[in-house]
Design a protein that fits this description.
The complex is a heterodimer of chains A (606) and B (359). Chain A has 606 residues and is an all-alpha fold. Chain A contains 16 helices and no strands. Chain B has eleven helices and twelve strands. Chain B starts with a helix and ends with a helix. Classes of the chains: A mainly alpha (606), B alpha+beta (359).
Chain lengths: 606, 359
């Protein structure tokens, strides 16, 4: 990364370097980079897990993996992609860009922000530590009781999983409070709520979903830990508990979680399309309100994951209709994206390609979603590969395509250099083809009766060809990401200089140098419209993109670096790990946590 | 394997292609492929006679579900073609060309947006009404003297069936008469399973402490495949089942035979085998009606030889397979609950000889 800020010689503007500066940083941009790099590494790990799973399924009766290895890998693939890849990738963009897009110099609670990252990192490491200590979780990413109970999972695996998720939940909760406060309080003068970029809006809704959806799973996990360690029997029917209680609590979190994963991508695409179409987002107000509506409806549909549990006709009908209702605001968004392209002049640079592919793939995932909103039809679909196809079309075709669009769009701002367009296009076409080759046949094979989560399958059921295509597709996806990695590594050294606003975009993050100075804005911008950089005679779409402006010398007070967030996060994780390794560690962890929090509170302001 | 390689070549080939598609990204892309593929799904699914295909219903219950499913699929196909078509049109028609001024700065159109809020609501109503009607029908469990009610109990990793009267307890192979209402009362002895017979009964979860019901009337005789659909740990993949739909006389005969206590072995080898089974560890887990073997952990073996498969439906019930199984069940189905090995080949032969008498 080029550093062009330091030469100014001003103490505040100087960009810190070195490992210590990363460990103690409270700069939202650096925390965003930490989130992005860590989450991308977890994304690669989750991808390797998926490749191993696909190799095992290439032919019937394969012995690439033992049943135990297979079950660990598919469980950790799901857990990793949801909690350690997509959520923190969204958090990376949230951290780096939301303050820039609202014209702020940092988040409301910079040290809490650092704390969130460190807790996330430690939680992810703790979860993956299980691979080398007795095996990883092996009961699926939604961990249905009673399989997770001590009598059926006597090893530490379920403890790693429950504690790991609990710790990760703390990271997300802290971040959600931080960003709710930031978005409400720290917008630049003139940036009313209805002038916020759609990405900010969707992240705002997402943070509320996190704040409200994480407590139910925290409760569910505490009950599971009590069951496992103190014989409380919350989920054991023979002692008066009920395993269905777990399913309700998990999905009360789990369904909003789906929107936590996808809404930020909705926001990214809603910002990317107008830039490349050179016209405003069609129906901004409808897009914002439909996002809010999705957020609300997301909380009343959880039991559609449970139609096969026999909840009775009234509950089935209620949850079916509520689920179908979600298709309305989702459809509105899709129509508005098409409306944005309509009459526009879209230049299909890599970000725009990923953005429109996102729409196309998400339509497919949305339609299969409506299919299993119908409980009787779902009795044939649930727990089959049809479901696997569906949620990969929304989480990969949706979230990952959207995030990849976001990466190609915003990485020039972070790196100060453009990514290579040709490599980007190769990545795009390989990923689009590989994705559809992997996941489209899963619709067929699912409706042809293949259940998910099976380490082997018999020949003669008509499943062989589709499984082979899927495995080949998975490797094409993997290859496509090699182009992405190569592109980033090469471009960050030798890519074309990005300048402030290489795409001619209209939102505030493009008004400052790339990469932005530590203080973001030398003077706070005054906002008069949704696309401030498109206002007036200096419309960025009509002027040749200028070279990066030199950051001004600015007397901006910035928060000091602090290592207390790191220490406190370590204490939190150690306290949790003690439940796995012995309660002495919990005691030590709590002491470190208290010492960290106390020192944090009393740390001098400057 | 030719198609993927073609794709690969097309996508990875020379940059010239890439530049061409840059102007026209979806002309050869996934959307067009999907437009071809979706009807193909429909056709393939409809034509398939594969053993677990959901679009080949053979009972009133699955036919009702398939009819609803088709209605939803057609609605989805129409929506898919319209929306994906509009998207592709917008991408191709409104791409950037050289020397253009700014496009019209349209911020929205309230009337249009209200219209496309209402339109999906109408499509959803079109599928919501039959959905709710069908939901209530799925829960209308038939009752009466002519209804055959069978208890289905999921175990790690096999299915147990208990017929009315309590004498007939069997595993993996479910026998039902054709043309008669059958009610399955489904529960679990350990973790959650899901009973799935795609052509006859769709699926319901088997949950400890709960009893779920499925009902169906099989339309024609035959053998139907199914398997556990809810992940239930190590050998979930090998928790298979079969449903034998018999004509009424065959079913009656089967039920009469299976209600009898176990046959007493006559040949010396089978007698030795019965001693091994009844006095050895087998009886700790398996029950054989009419003997002192009363174990409740593994499948009831009273009419073991009449079953088509062993090991939870994973291989045909032949002496050779049985020999392999008894020699080391953990090698064949790792993680199943049978931790007993019959190491001595003579003992295995005697055991098999006895098991073969349990018709």
């Amino acid at each position: 990364m080029t550093v062009n800020v330091g030469q100014l010689g001003h103490a505040v503007a100087a960009k810190p370097t070195g490992l210590w500066s990363w460990l103690t940083t409270v700069d939202h941009k650096r925390i965003g980079i930490l989130y992005g790099v860590t989450a991308f590494i977890f994304f690669l790990i989750g991808g390797i897990e998926a490749l191993l799973v696909r190799m095992q399924l290439f032919v019937p009766g394969a012995t690439v993996l033992t049943p135990d290895q297979y079950n660990q890998l598919f469980t950790m693939h799901g857990t990793t992609m949801v909690f350690l890849a997509i959520m923190p990738l969204n958090a990376a963009f949230l951290n780096y860009f939301v303050p820039l897009m609202i014209g702020a110099r940092d988040v409301a609670f910079p040290r809490l922000n650092a704390f969130s990252y460190w807790v996330f990192l430690f939680g992810g490491l703790l979860m993956n530590l299980s691979f080398v200590i007795g095996g990883a979780p092996d009961f699926g990413w939604f961990g249905y009781a009673p399989l997770t109970e001590r009598q059926f999972s006597p090893e530490l695996r379920a403890d790693f999983w429950a504690i790991g998720l609990q710790v990760l939940g703390i990271a997300s909760l802290a971040a959600s409070f931080n960003f709710i406060v930031t978005i409400i309080n720290m917008r630049a003068p003139g940036m009313t709520l209805m002038r916020m970029p759609p990405f900010v809006w969707m992240q705002f809704v997402t943070q509320w979903l996190l704040a409200l959806a994480l407590p139910p799973i925290a409760v569910a996990l505490i009950l599971l830990i009590f069951d496992r360690h103190f014989s409380t029997n919350f989920y054991l029917s023979e002692w008066g508990g009920d395993p269905i209680l777990w399913q309700h609590l998990f999905w009360i979190f789990g369904h909003p979680e789906v929107y936590i994963l996808i809404l930020p991508a909705f926001g990214m695409v809603s910002d990317i399309l107008p830039t490349f179409a050179r016209k405003p987002l069609f129906g901004y107000t409808f897009v914002v309100y439909s996002g809010i509506a999705i957020g609300f409806l997301g909380f009343i549909v959880w039991a559609h994951h449970m139609f096969a549990t026999g909840m009775g006709p009234v509950a089935d009908s209620a949850f079916a209709i509520a689920t179908m209702l979600i298709a309305i605001p989702t459809g509105v968004k899709i129509f508005n994206w098409i409306g944005t392209l309509w009459l526009g002049q879209t230049a299909y640079k890599t970000p725009a390609l990923f953005a429109v592919a996102f729409i196309a793939m998400f339509i497919i995932g949305g339609l299969s979603g409506v299919m299993h909103a119908s409980p009787p039809a779902d009795l044939q679909q649930t727990d089959s590969y049809f479901i696997v196809a569906h949620f990969h079309y929304v989480l990969f075709g949706g979230a990952i395509f959207g995030i990849t669009a976001g990466a190609y769009y915003w990485l020039p701002k972070i790196l100060g250099r453009m990514l290579n367009e040709r490599l980007g296009q190769i990545h795009f076409w390989l990923m689009l083809i590989g994705f559809n080759l992997t996941f489209f046949p899963m619709h067929f094979v699912g409706l042809n009766g293949m259940p998910r989560r099976t380490y082997t399958y018999p020949a003669g059921f008509g499943w062989e060809l589709m499984n082979q295509l899927e495995t080949i597709g998975a490797f094409i996806i993997a290859i496509s990401f090699l182009f992405f990695i190569y592109n980033v590594l090469v471009s960050m050294r030798s890519g074309a200089i990005a300048g402030n606003n290489p795409w001619g975009a209209g939102t505030l993050e493009w008004s400052i140098p790339s990469p932005p100075p530590v203080y973001n804005f030398a003077t706070l911008p005054v906002v008069r419209s949704l696309y401030p950089l498109w206002d007036g005679p200096n419309d960025s779409r009509l002027t040749t993109p200028a070279a990066s402006t030199t950051p001004e010398e600015a007397h901006v007070h910035l928060p000091n670096p602090s290592y207390w967030p790191l220490v406190t996060a370590f204490g939190v994780t150690l306290a949790g790990a003690g439940i796995i390794f012995g309660f002495v560690l919990t005691g030590i962890g709590i002491l470190i946590l208290l010492a960290g929090a106390y020192s944090w509170a009393l740390e001098p302001a400057s | 394997m030719a198609p993927p390689l073609d794709h690969e070549r097309a996508a990875g080939s020379a940059p010239v292609d890439v530049r061409k598609v840059q102007m026209n990204p979806f002309r050869n892309g996934a959307v067009r492929a999907s437009l071809v593929l979706l009807p193909a799904v429909v056709l393939l699914s409809a034509c398939s006679t594969d053993p677990q295909n959901v679009f080949d219903p053979r009972s009133d219950f699955t036919r009702m579900i398939a009819d609803l499913f088709w209605q939803i699929i057609w609605a989805a196909v129409v929506v898919f073609v319209l929306v994906q078509g509009a998207l592709v049109y917008a991408i191709i028609r409104y791409r950037r060309r050289a020397n253009q001024g700014l496009p019209p700065q349209v911020h929205g159109n309230t009337r249009l947006e209200v219209a496309w809020t209402i339109a999906p609501a109408l499509v959803l109503a079109w599928i919501a009404v039959p959905t709710v009607q069908t939901i209530f029908r799925t829960y209308e469990v038939p009752s009466g003297p002519d209804v055959l009610t069978i208890e289905v109990i999921g175990h790690q990793y096999w299915w147990e069936y208990r017929y009315p009267g309590g004498n007939v307890v069997t595993a993996t192979d479910l026998h039902v008469p054709v043309g008669r209402r059958v009610v399955l009362r489904i529960t679990s002895a350990d973790v959650i399973h899901s009973y799935w017979v795609p052509k006859l009964a769709a699926k319901r979860d088997a949950i400890p402490g709960h009893v779920n019901t499925l009902w169906f009337t099989a339309e024609q005789t035959g053998v139907y495949e199914g398997q556990c659909a809810e992940f239930c740990s190590l050998q979930h993949a090998n928790m298979r089942l079969r449903v034998f739909v018999d004509d009424q006389p065959t079913f009656d005969q089967w039920l009469r035979t299976n209600a009898q206590p176990a046959a007493t072995p006559t040949s010396p080898e089978a007698q030795r085998g019965s001693q091994l089974v009844l006095q050895g560890t087998c009886a700790g887990c398996h029950a054989i009606n009419g003997t002192n073997a009363r174990g409740q952990i593994g499948p009831n073996l009273t009419h073991f030889a009449s079953r088509s498969t062993i090991g939870g439906g994973i291989m045909p019930n032949t002496p050779e397979n049985l020999d392999r199984w008894l020699e080391n069940p953990q090698a064949i189905k790792p993680g199943n609950l049978m931790n007993v090995v019959v190491a001595n080949p003579q003992d295995r032969q005697a055991t098999i000889a006895y098991l073969q008498t349990l018709r």
